[in-house]
Amino acid sequence: MASAAGPAPRVRPATADDAGAVARLLAQLGYPCAHEEAAERIAVIAADPRQHLLLAEHDGAACGLVSLHLLYSLAHGAELARITALVVAPEHCRRGIGRRLLREVEQLSRRRRVHRIEVASNAQRTGAHAFYRDCGYADGSLRFVKMLGD
Q: N-acetyltransferase domain: which residues (predicted)?
């Protein structure tokens, strides 16, 4: 999808060389980490064939990312895909980059014969909720979290 801002972004798997961009994008999502931590996270995902980290680039610069985890669901008796992060740099919002990343995730999931994609979003991120609904995602289960600090 091309926009007034130019051609569609290129989407590709993230590599160790992308650690700085991944750290910057994660910070914008509210999950700051150092360059070294981002490099470690990229390495963990790259070593796991059930995880994927895709980077969107515009004019050679990272402008968004999406991470995906494929897993077997006992409840559904089938593989499902879970989006664990999706972010577009603020200066690139509303240019179709988020939709492009979702399309990549959906195509990857179809190739793996996954029929269900899940994504969780913080209750305060109402703009993200509207985005997901507009992209065909429906409200699902309520999610509960407990931090284990012991």
A: 9-150
